[in-house]
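Researcher: Next entry: Two-component system nitrate/nitrite response regulator NarL (Rhizobium lentis).
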Amino acid sequence: MTGITIAIVDDHPLFREGVSRSLSEIEDFVVVGEGANAADAATLAARHRPDILLLDVSMPGGGIDAISDIVVRSPQTKVMMLTASEEIEALVAALRRKAAGYVVKGAGSRELAEAIRTVMGGARFVSPTMRASTSLFDRRASLTRREIEVMELAAEGLSNKHIGRRLNLQEKTIKHHMTQILSKLGARNRTEAAIRCRQGTERR
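Model: Predicted structure:
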């Protein structure tokens, strides 16, 4: 089958049918199936192995929880969340499960088509309104395990000396880690870094 194959899973029939109709009108897009819940998503992935599988976050069975099963059944399928949820927690959870895109339902058909093409090109797509949150997620994800340990202790109010004692490291080593942490998080000081690190931890 030529073109980009797409499956759509959403528990609101009118919305799902509207998306399907809009995408079908685009010359190189082929909608190969529709579903309403996580079980349908898994079945569509196994049966059709679509290039793109659009999932609603809050559908029965949970869209985010369905990602892992879909990837197992059809490794080449790129999962994109198409959802009304602008909650940061949902975005971060989807990205951690390796979703390739996160599109807010307020997007028009042109933006959705652009998102699909972006993902098919190998890049990640996140709706513009959510991109600042993605930046924070990416920055925290760049921290090493040791840097996270240092930052979490700093967030508890421990000094470099006491962090060093807790981790059995020299104080100058802790200072080096803090310099790296501030740079990676784009923070001006320990307090700002601690706040950003805590936000990232809460959203894992």
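Model: Note for the record: The longest helix spans residues 171-185.
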